[in-house]
Amino acid sequence: MDVYQVLSYRIPKLIQDNPEHSSKPIYVLTTVNYHVNDQLEQRLQQANNDYHGERLVLIPYNLGNSHSTGIFIKFKADDHIERAEFINPVNESNYIPDELQQYFNEIFPGAHLQLRTCEHVGDRNLSAVLTIKNLLAIVEESEFTTYESSSTNNVQTQPIDWQHKDPNIDTSLFSEGNHSKFSDSVQKSK
Predict the structure, then answer these.
(1) I need a surface site. Which of 31, 104, 155, 180 has the fewest CB within 10 A?
(2) Which helix (H) or strand (E) holds 187?
(3) Collapsed DSSP state (helix, strand, coil) of residue 58
């Protein structure tokens, strides 16, 4: 499975499906193959030099032996990195390759590449599918998720009247008089 091809198809569709949230350009760069000299450095330079302003950059990274990983970089308007994460969905591969860390530090001094906690699989052959899934999830989280703190506050401060919300909930299961049946059953089990 070609991670670059799939992401190149899915990202425009994601933007099309969420036009009200899309504000930053999202670039999918060609896959880096670990065994090809200077490809990693070239893609990182491309992410840094070829585009400007707020943007998201995705770089598929093939470590060989069907081991697909990915790099996510979120840039601020001033071209500094706001967030950079390495996605490695293979079990027991929870590290950033030395070469990647070295080039990243050279090209983006002062920025920190973090290992993203993500869904894992034991089979490297399935890593491409999970790399795609995890990269799409981080794009959705970064670009298409809105946080409405005012509505969250309202929800927290409003008392919930379960009998009016759903008349099928039998509140007698939870309380009887001034004490709880649940707490009675806990005390009996002691």
Answers:
(1) 155
(2) helix 181-189
(3) strand
